[in-house]
Here is the input.
Amino acid sequence: MRLRVSHVTRYRFDVPVRGVVQSHRLIPAECEGQKVLDWRVEVEGATWGAAFRDGAGDQVRTMVLSGPVLEVAVAIAGEVETTDTAGVLRGHREAVPPLAYRRTTRRTRPDKAIAALVRRALEGCDTAPDLDRAHALAAAVADAIVYAPGETHAHTTAAEALAQGAGVCQDHTHVMIAAASQAGMPARYVTGYLHASSEEGAHEASHAWAELHVTGLGWVGFDAANKCCPNEHYIRVGSGLDAEDAAPIRGVTRGGAEESMQVTVAVEAAQQ
Here is the structure.
């Protein structure tokens, strides 16, 4: 499938700031399941700095805007050819060992309720292969959290989302990572895009899902919000320990100002 992405993140300040420095993780990863045909990240007036591939295999680039700055618009336009690998991440170069992802954060730390969810999900699975256990965890998380936009916020933890029983893809992913950690499986947060119609469940164009490290297969994606593994409808961009660590844009401003953010994203099937 050929997918076309249009994504604009616009930051506005109530008073001019002296400058803005951002770190971008906005370029799709190169791997067997996706081939980047065209991809542009543009910021009017920006000076582009260092670009490198980090230990997780993600492409990172820095951007500087000199002040006075009232608005920053990060515009992405691109096209990616995707194929279905049944969620298995193949051909992705990275140096960080899987065991590094056994570490949890405040957002992904399991509590007693998550531990109980894992026990129920894996009952009778003591000798089951890792892949079967991972699917069982994903099914349990999908059943425990109803997809409901507006019920949680950017800082909601996995424990809070499970207690509430509702959330969005970020919450499903944090709970999935916490559950995998409780089960002894390395897991990480993945950001990207999803092409889906309004009839196909959780359809945020800017999307997130979990990857679990499965013995014999390596990293495998699980989108609990949509009860599936990533397929040709997905574009993988970056990863991290949680939503904050994997954030596509991180930055600092010089000068005190109130900031607001507006995001517009569209993912369409391009003509072959």
